[in-house]
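From the pipeline queue, job 12 of 40. The input is one protein chain; the requested action is below.

Action: predict structure.
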Amino acid sequence: MTEPYDLITMGRIGVDLYPLQTGVPLAQVETFGKFLGGSATNVAVAAARLGRRSAVISRTGSDPFGDYVHQALRDFGVDDRWVTAVDAYPTPVTFCEIFPPDDFPLYFYRRPKAPDLVIHPEELDRDAIAAARIFWVTGTGLCEEPSRTATLAALEARAKAGTTVFDLDWRPMFWGGAGGASGDGGTAGAAAMVDARPYYEAALRHATVAVGNVDEAEVATGLRDPWACARALLDMGVELAVIKQGPKGVLAVHRDGRTAEVPPTPVEVVNGLGAGDSFGGALCHGLLAGWELAPVMRYANAAGAIVASRLACSSAMPTADEVDAFLAAR
């Protein structure tokens, strides 16, 4: 077996087609840029940009967009050996609208089914998963079979070895609900949250770190106060709860009593999409380095802020030198 990976992520992969005009409704956009996308994939890219050896477990369609995904992963230095093709479904495409500073609607084209939800348990390289220094899964991976069973099987293979991160990653529309990336989905969104909670609880029993915003933490805990969410996540089995609070910064609470509250790093926002994934990759980088909580959160906040100040997601992920320079200037 080769040297263990610093990070293996498992989850969404696809192509982002982002408008090259800002402040324009999608119906009026004339030109788009093509980028590698998918939350779990972006986290792996973010870590690779910071010098970490990373890989992704996912699936694409057997189509030119699938070919592009493989090439983009290799260009970013992310191992694509566990990204396989599904003949029956196309590679997902995601569009967005860009209305800075805080309105970035997403439009997912993942039907009739996304290939990354067709990961089967028997396809998993459980030895590599168990050996990775950090293993990262997302809430979306739990929304449909066979991905749900495969995600839980991968978590079981970890047996809480090393660091196992559950990204709460709430997308109500993937669970038959409504609304965007938050809990604001009316009756349908609330019902989807209730449906998702048992699977979130099952994943958290195998995780050592939980990461999400307040809306996402509510899916797992039923609570909305950040401190209450963090304590509830610890009670559900994790060692570290990280609650992202947007303009209020980030809260980290460890089981051993350590806490950190770090304010956000102000930037002129171009596109807020991908900032959370950059935060995730930088969080992994800091945890691998053995930093204390507050420095990890400051670093992750800075990495997220850099991406928020840029148009793209994957190709906007900063290098370590860029994050260091950004922090030094503040």
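Job complete. The chain has a mean pLDDT of 95.
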